[in-house]
Structure formats: structure tokens, C-alpha cells
Hints:
By secondary structure, the protein is of the alpha+beta class. The protein has a single domain (6-57), classed as 3-Layer(aba) Sandwich (Aminopeptidase), CATH 3.40.630. The chain has two helices and three strands, in the order H-E-H-E-E. It has helices spanning 6-17, 32-40; strands spanning 23-28, 44-48, 52-57. The radius of gyration is 14 Å and the shape is globular. The mean pLDDT is 89.
Amino acid sequence: xxxxxxxxxxxxxxxxxxxxxxxxxxxxxxxxxxIAFYQRLGFSIVDEDSTHVQMKKLPALTAPVLQ
Length: 67
């Protein structure tokens, strides 16, 4: 089994705690590795300014419960 990096482990926990909610963050534009890291976790770039990109991960869709 592959071990998670510290960053991956932290983000996995944050995303688990935020289950059902959107998560927003911003990253310096020059941090290409950081942007790629968040994209691998499912974040998308939603906006940018002269120094930062804003990223968002939407909550996973769940199937409705049928009764």
C-alpha cells in the first residue's frame, strides 16, 4: 500500500471533514506544483488575479435514497 505524503494526508482529512460542502482555496500562481497537487485532488481553477489562482472542489454528488 502506498503511503500518503503529509500534504495528501492533511487534505484527505480536510476533505473528509468537509464532506457535502464545497472547499475553496487560493494558491500563488508561481506555485505550479501546488496547483497540480490540488488538481489531482479534484480541485478546479475558478478564478485568478495577478498573483493567485482561486480553486474549488465541489462536494461529491450522492444518489438519492429511495424509500
